[in-house]
Amino acid sequence: MILSRRITLFCTILASGVLVAGYAREGFWFPMILVFLTGLIWLAEQWDWLPWKIIGSIGLAVFTIAAMVLAFVGFPAILILLSLILTLIAWDLDDFLSRTMEAGYVENATELERLHLKRIAITSGLGLILGGAALEVKIDLAFGWILLLGLVIIILLNRLMAALTGNSK
């Protein structure tokens, strides 16, 4: 679980850094301090200096809202996408570590961690690639086609995850 903890810390620091730099660039000092403090509190929770496990979810919400605000003021979209993906990785691994620690003894903990990291890598990589492509490719579609396409993508992602976990029924 050491690798997961290191990745969690790295992603939290990097996501916080991107958002703090974005707010500093735009000259929004109060939100910058808020994001910075949220990142510090989240890191303290990850190091088990704070006992409240809800901090990870609060960090996810604050970082997501902070990224959304930066999108409205014109911060580069690729950096916003990167910060969101890093935030989601940090939140997911923080929750994964919390649950495995609460469970006490976990049989094949190393294998479980490896499989979880593999799933996160695949999901995050696909998210970064598809998100980056979405930022570059412009297609005009009617709203109905967008809904249909979204439904097809959700079904395909569900099947992909089922195949990766071995639950393809």
Through-space gap between termini: 31 Å
The number of distinct β-strands equals 0
| Uncertain residue ranges | none
User: What composes the largest sheet?
Assistant: none
Structural class: mainly alpha
Helix content: over 70%
Give structural notes.
With 169 residues, the protein is mainly α. It folds into 2 domains: 2-138; 140-169. The protein has 6 helices and no strands. The chain has helices spanning 2-26, 29-46, 55-72, 77-103, 109-136, 143-165. Helix 1 (2-26) runs parallel beside helix 3 (55-72), helix 1 (2-26) packs antiparallel against helix 4 and helix 2 (29-46) runs antiparallel to helix 3 (55-72). The longest helix is centred in the C-terminal third of the chain and has 28 residues, at 109-136. The protein is flat, with a radius of gyration of 18 Å. The two termini are 31 Å apart.
